[in-house]
Write the structure tokens for this entry.
Amino acid sequence: MSVQPSLRLNDGREMPQLGLGVWQTPADETAQAVKAALDAGYRSVDTAAIYRNEKGVGEGLRAASVARDDVAVTTKLWNEQQGFDSALKAFDDSLGRLGLDYVDLYLIHWPCPSRELYVDSWRALIRLKQEGRARSIGVSNFRAEHLQRIIDETGVTPAVNQIELHPRWQQQAMRDVDAGLGIITESWSPLGQGVLLADPALIAIAAKHGRTPAQVVIRWHLDLGLMVIPKSVTPSRIVENFQVFDFKLDAQDIAAISALDDANGRIGPDPAAFG
Ligand code: NAD
């Protein structure tokens, strides 16, 4: 198996390009899923306070035979805890549940523009990075205007913007905005929550390469230079989703996947209105 790729962030740190997502992973199944992923070679896990499974992430990490420093742990500030002081407190609470003394990446989960607190929250994340307790900081579901505002008001550019991104919602415009600002784009719901995998075009590409549709889609994210965090609790799928470093998509495959982009393809809420 070839070596797993990593991406260099704008703060000089590196993160593995592929990680395990744990949204909707039940709290009592999270430790086993995280351990299965680490055993399979994953070195990155994406959770959030609102997923209510940070404790299981920490347990899975400690159960695996992997050094803490070799695993990138991401968690996120929930909407109701936005604000400077409340973000600092929420971060401490997350660290406590994880049982860790730092995280590798801390994200503002949604901008929640109507709350008018994301700039204050961002200042708290800047403090956490200065303290070394969040090694890198970033945002999630931010649009161009939200990114520009935090950069203009603080002078600090997020390392990562984690957004909904999959073949039916390819987000070219937002990827261009992120790239122009030196921000890595990270794909959430990268498999379209699994529904996408029944698409005949993806099944055909998978058959051609002797792979599965999930592997084809993950390979597509990697080839676009995105960070990607597919979720599964099933050990065989966790392994399958990591076996993506030893094949390549060709121009025809990429054209067929590009054609799946759909103006109605979004699954989640509109970040301008949510929260
Ligand atoms: P996903 O696109 O990763 O799809 C996961 C689902 O796909 C699984 O539940 C399973 O049904 C199916 N699946 C997974 N592997 C498969 C395989 N090999 N074969 C067949 N089916 C398979 O969905 P997701 O969980 O929504 O997104 C991934 C991660 O992104 C989350 O777990 C979370 O960490 C993150 N996320 C972040 C936000 C945000 O607002 N920042 C929102 C949603 C998700």
User: Anything to note?
Assistant: Residues 84-98 form the longest helix (15 residues). Strands lie at 6-8, 14-16, 20-21, 44-46, 72-77, 103-108, 134-140, 160-164, 184-188, 227-228. Residues 21-24, 46, 109, 140-141, 162, 188-194, 197, 212, 214, 229-232, 237, 240-241, 268 surround nicotinamide-adenine-dinucleotide (CB under 6 Å). Residues 149 and 210 are 46 Å apart (CA to CA).
